[in-house]
Structure formats: structure tokens, C-alpha cells
Amino acid sequence: MKLFKMLFCFLTLYLVTNIDAKAQKTETLIKYLSGTDKDNTVAWDFYCSEGMQSKKWTKIQVPSCWELQGFGAYNYGRDYKVNKPYANEHGLYKHKFFVPKNWNESEIKIVFEGVMTDAEVKINGQLAGAIHQGAFYEFKYNITRLLKFGTENLLEVKVNKMSSNASINAAERNTDFWIFGGIYRPVFLEVLPKKNIQRVAINAQANGAITAEVFTNTNKTETVQLFLTNLKGNTLQNLETSAKKEDKKWLVSAKASNIKPWHAETPHLYNLHIKLLDKNGNTLHKLSKRIGFRSVEVRESDGIYVNGKKIKFKGVNRHSFHPESGRTTSKALSIKHVKMMKDMNMNAVRMSHYPPDTHFLDVCDSLGLFVINEVCTWHVPYLDEKVGEKIIKEAVVRDVNHPSILLWANGNETGWNTNLDDDYAKWDIQKREVIHPWNVFKKTNTMHYPDYYKFAFDAPSKDKIYFPTEFLHGLYDGGHGAGLDDYWKQMWHMPLAAGGFLWNFADEGVVRTDKNGIIDVDGNHAPDGIVGPYGEKEGSYFTIKEVWSPIYIEERYIKPSFSGVFNVENRYHVTHLNACEITAKWMVFNGPNTLAGSKVLFENKVELPNLAPGEKGSFTVKKPENWQQADALFLTAKDMYGMEIFTWSYPVKTPKQINNTYLNFSSSASVQTTKLNDVILVKAKDIEYKFSNKTGLLKMVTKKGNQIHLKDGPVLLGNKTNLENVVVNTFEDKVEIIGLFKKRKKYHDWKENNKMTQDFFKWTVNSNGLLDLNVELRNQKIVEGYMGITFSFPEEDVKGMKWLGDGPYRVWRNRMKGTRFQVWENNYNNTVTGQSGWVYPEFKGFFSRLNWMKLYSKSRNGFTVYCHSDLIFLRMLTPDQPKEYGKGAAVNVFPEGNISFLKNIPAMGTKFMPASSSGPQGSDKNYFGNTDEPIVIHLTFEF
């Protein structure tokens, strides 16, 4: 048996060796020494010099950031200078690997996709080459001469977390993001034929023209051949090529016919196959590169064009990051992130602030996102120009062939050395333009965080193409969706505006292995995301999805005279509107006491007009005969790939019409009223109400002996006068308690045609126990603060709520879009957006278009309130204040009490500016118009 196992192992090794040899005869063979991503790792021997698990040899998973494996010490970039222990932190890696004997006819390179930060590599005790500096760049060594064939070899890597180069540290370590140590991207062997293609740079234009630079390691070649296949491998064209040889480089040109251009909306891809032939026509080496045919132009004082079409960037900044693995990611995570961006109707992403994993760019190519690729600097340029030149070369050479990359960014926020700008063209056959994010530079103005008004009137650079590479800083629940509607209206209609890039995609929260697994966002430095660390969707996610919808439907209200016609604009760049589809659903919702969900009364497809990009038109929704029996109309748009663009919702009935179907005020019972000192006691059915005789406010509700904690309301918000009188009117089947406020001189007599002309509230206790409340507020044209009414209810007794209205996310005055009108149900949570919990939707806050709300209490003594008035906001409790919210990324003034019914709500700002700077919707003034018509809030409480 033992002999059999030995023979089996030998045979297996022989087969693997010979298969490898055969496969790599003319092709490149890749053999991983590490794992391939965060979910597929390989254990190597490891020693850490400082911090957690230091001063001993043990095992570590590769690739990884060693802090997330429980080694060393965590630090956020800004603090490395003051935390001296980090300065000498380094790790030692050892790993043995087998090299087949017949590889001795090959050229073998070891490739590191990314190491933080300085890497010294040895093979069998000998240096593989110069120490590599720069954490975010692929590097490789030719190690053929150092290998032992047919046996094991020893790889040793020393990794210094901090670089010995001051420019590298300034660029990568003293930054505004988490910094880590380790071999955090994969390591592999690249096995090539002796005579081979070293690398290829390709320029594939939208008209099918191809030029390529084919770099070889030999001059003893006859020619280069190209042929084109689709991604399935089917040969489309053997390309007629014109080739010119220079020293170890071929300049090749060809023309492909009948190709489909690459665009973010239509990401058509092909494989370009390259063969290196000897003088006898034998293939020395062959490889393939995935390409897209597309052309990019930056036209001065005009715009950025792809394939001759001007584009608007609907973009976001994105870190390569996962909370449990730091900068070590995976293709699955890249796919997830790109799909979420596409789901938000984005078309662009900026690499902040370093080149990402290659698989992320692969996914941008295949799913369709425009990319700005960036080298890593932050506020300080590369003073060491030699290392800066190396960094740019490594970035461009690796990524040159990705069709998704439209522009290069030479660092971030004054981190550019202008002497290095021309280095990009040395390595980029496509000669893509270089920008300086946060600066006016050549043809572009990429100013960061312009306020709305500065964006509109930036006089010194009005002739530049204007696109902020960071705007609406999304700290906590601020920015992102809050303000985007105003900005985008401006960006869309400004001829020289090319869109912009939101900051940032995800909260960069890291799992602290040294702090019992808490998620740390380093105060207010890293909670900037539209989504949480694990992709948890905040409310802004859906606001962005609606605002950036390529199908723009003009705002519409459905009234009895509704014609079925909607005005529409095609905001795609290359897609015709009729390539998409819209489905109309007429919905009926169930009430607060029904478990069943909603149902579709009628459904049909909408015929969309054939509108070219940029054109406006209309479509008509078919109205069934009984359409006015529906509660709402849903319009769901899907793109050509079947993905939802957005679902718009339109109430058909008024709140009063909807609620009338749930309420019955008739009863044969009587109502008992007693005045006792300061209390008006009213009993109806099995409910007892106590009101203040001095203020008319509700003080207590008791049902069957159980207290319901709603009280101390209605406090009138926006009322400018004092309470004048409390009137009690008793009837056989009801009791009215009226609070009258002093009239102001500007109004007429307080009674006119039996209508009040001063502020008042009126309670009506009905004999069946229902409690009605009517409030009228005489508003001013401009109101500072809230307009509405408020009550108290103890937060500790709140379990959840179910409601008919917009949801499931809360809204701000400048973030109203992205919700849907239907029945929702949220459980209580105390999430502070981006800071703690990451349970979404947040329970606390403002909710729009309230029809009814059922409050669940822990004591099982909740209530239902029906709102009969139009366009009322529900305020549910008070969100906790986030820490260090900057100039405006928090709302810290809420109405008194806990539950409010309002006609206006506040706007939300950002880390760098108050809401009032983000556009008209962020104004701190509330304009209510004609003062002759009161604000009416009509509620019915059911206990």
C-alpha cells in the first residue's frame, strides 16, 4: 500500500509537471503562491516585530492586511507621525514552493500585486531585485536565475509598514484613510516562453482602428499577428496588420470592422489575441487582452466626449476596502460594489486615492462604468521625482488597456507634482488626459466641495469643463442624497458641467481585532458612505437612484382630472428610450389592522416613445375604468438588461378618502364628561381621556385600566400668540374641547361665516371612543422653525411602527426623493447613521406623506393615528446626535416632545457646509405663501 501511494504521488507530479510544461510552451502560465483574494488564502510563516502577536514566528493568511489577522497595531493615516511605535513595525514572511524541472526552458517572474509598503524579496537567500516602494502598485522580478528546478524553493519577504522614502510616506501613510501592513494582494509566478511578449499597450478606437505596442524580450522575431474573438472565443476577424519593429518593440496597427463600441451603457468587449512569430512562422508566444473599442476626447471649453457623445459623470469615489480584511478584497466584492453603483444609476467611479485591484477594473469594463484612475498622493506631491516616475509607470503599465479608464489623476488635493504630468503619456498609448483633482488645471476645473452657489458662479474659471471630483461629502446622514437634487438640476443644464463624483461609496469601518471586534470608523474620518461597511444601504442610496435615473419623469400629481399623460426626458447618453420598459400598476393597500399586504388592481405595460438621448416627449398610462378605486399608481422602469431603474409612486386618493374606509364614527353609546379641578375627564366606551382645563392639552389616555402614554399635545408649533380660552361643548354622542388662541391684528373678527380666523385646536371625543383632532394655524409667509403640532410619548416604550406613507427611509427637506408611497413596517432601532448600529432604515426621524400610522409599544399599549390632511410629515422620536458632525452633517433642532405632525421639516448639510449652502431646498426659511388660508391638520386617534 505504501509503495502504491508513492507511485501514485510520483505519477500525479509527473502529469502536473508535463501538463504545465505543455500549457506554457507558447502561452503564459500563472501559478499562485498565495491565495487569490480575501476569501481564498494560503498560510505562510510570519513574524511581526511590534504590537499584537509580535516577537514570534507563527502563521498568517496571504493575501491579507496583518492587523486584520491580529498582528501589529492599527492606525488611521493621519496619526502615524505621533504614534511612534508604528514607525518600525515590520513583518517577515517565509514560504516554500516547488518548481518543476522542465521549467528551466522558461522565463519565470514573481509578481506581487500589492504590498504595504516597502518590500524586500529574496529567493533562496538572494535578493530578487531592488526593494520595492509604494503600497498600491504591482511589481515583479525575473527570478529565473535564482530558482532551483525540480525541487523546493524558499521565498522570503520583509515588509516594512512605513517606507524609508519620505515621499512615499507623505503620499500613502499620512493620509485620510486607514493604513495597513502586509502582502495584501495576491502573489504568483508568471511562467513565459524564453522568447516572449513582456507587455502590450493597446489603443482600440470606436471606429475599429487598433494600434498596439508589443514589447518583447528579444529581437529575434519575424512578425506579430493579431486576431479578434468575442468573449466566448469565437473568431470574428483575422486582422490585417501593419507592423514595424523597433528595439525589442513592435508597433502594430490594424482595422476591425463591424464592431460595437464600448460605453458605460453598452459595455461591448472583445478579446484581442497577439502572436509573436519566428522567421519560420512558428508561434513563440501568444497572449490575449480583453479590449473595448472606444474613443475619449476632452474638448476645451466644451466637455468630455466618449465615442463622440458628451457625457455627464454620475459618479462616486470608492476605496478598495472590506471591514474584515482591510485593503484585501475579492472579485466577488468588486462585482457587488459595481452592481450597487449601477443600481444607483451611476455611470462613473473615481479610484480614491490609488489604483484598485485589477479585478475591480475588469468589472468596470464588463458591467460598464467610466473610471478615473489615480496614483496615491494626499496634499503633498512626490518631492522625490524618481520614485514618482516609477509609481506612474507602474500604475499606467498595469492598467493601460482597460476601456473603462477615461482619465488619469496625478494625485489628490495638491498632491500633484506637475513635473510628472508628462510621464503618463510615456506609458499610455492612448494619451489619455491627466487631471489634478481639487484644482483648475488646463481644460478642467475639478474643485472639491463647491457650495451650490459657488458652483453656479465660479467666474474665474467659467470657461473650464466643470466637474468636482468630490462633492456633497457624505458624513453620517449628510450630503450624498441631501442636496443632490438641486446640484443635479444645475449640473444637467450647465453646458460646461460634466457631472461630478460623490464622496464616498462606503463607510470605511474596520473590525478591530484588538477591541473585541468593534467596527471603528475613526471618529468622523471614515463614516462617509452611501452604504455601510458591509454594504448596508442608507436612505441616500435610493435618493441617488431616483435623481440619477436616466429616465426623467416630470413631477406629477394625480387628481380626478388625471389624463394619464406623463412628460418624460431621455437622459441616457447613447440609449434610446424605447430600449427600456415601464410597467404601470394600480395599487390597493390594506389598513393598519390587516395583516395581508397590498394588491394590484390593474397592471399593464406602457408604450414608450422612441426618444433619442437628450430628447423630451411623453407617454400615456392606460386608465382602467375603476382607476379611482386605486390608492396609488406605481411606475416601474427597467433598462435593456432587465434591471430596475426606479419605481415612482403616485397617490391616487387623498388621505381623507383612504382613511374613511377604515373609520366608523357611528355608535349608540353616550359620552360622560366631568370637570375636576384642572382636569376635564371624558369617558367613552372603555376609554378614559384626561385633558387640562387650562391648556386643553391631552394629559392621559387609559383603556380598560391600561395607560397609553400619548400625552402633552397638541403643542402648536409656529403659533405666535398665547392661548386665550378653553371651551368645552358637550353633546349626547360627543364632546368638543377647543383651545382658542389670541387673534392677531392682521386678521378679521375671530368668527366669519362660522369659520375660525385665529389659531385653534379642537378635540372631539366620539361615543365609540375615537378621538378626533382638528388644528388650524394662521401661518406667516416666511416661517423660521417648525409648523405643526407635537406630542410626548416615551421612547423606551416604542417597539416599532407600521404606516401608509413614503418609506421605508426617513427624509430631509433636501432629500425627499427615493421613497415609495405604500404600507411599511419598521422595528425600533437607535442607529446613528454611519457611526453605530448600521441597522437601516433608521427608525427615528421624519417621514413624508403620512396617511396613517400604527405605533407598537413594548407595553402593548400603542395606538393608531389617521391623518386626513394632505402632505403631512410624521416626526418619530429624535435621532441621537452624531459626534463631530462638522459644519452641517447633523440636524440638532427638533420639535419638543417625541411624536409630531408637521407641514415642514429641516434640510441636512454636509461635513463642510450647512444645508443652506447646498441649494434652494436647503434653505432655513420656510415659504408658506398666502396667509389667508390656514394650515389644517386633521387627525383621528384610535386606542
TrEMBL record:
Recorded GO CC terms: beta-galactosidase complex
Catalytic activity: Hydrolysis of terminal non-reducing beta-D-galactose residues in beta-D-galactosides
Top-level EC class as recorded in UniProt: hydrolase
InterPro entries: Bact_Beta-galactosidase, Beta-gal/glucu_dom_sf, Gal_mutarotase_sf_dom, Galactose-bd-like_sf, GH, GH-type_carb-bd, Glyco_hydro_2, Glyco_hydro_2_cat
Oligomer and partners: Monomer.
Glycoside hydrolase family 2 catalytic domain: residues covered: 296-516
GO biological process: lactose catabolic process
Occurrences of domain Glycosyl hydrolases family 2 sugar binding (ranges): 58-192
Signal peptide: 1-21
Protein name, UniProt field: beta-galactosidase
Keyword Calcium included in the entry's annotation: yes
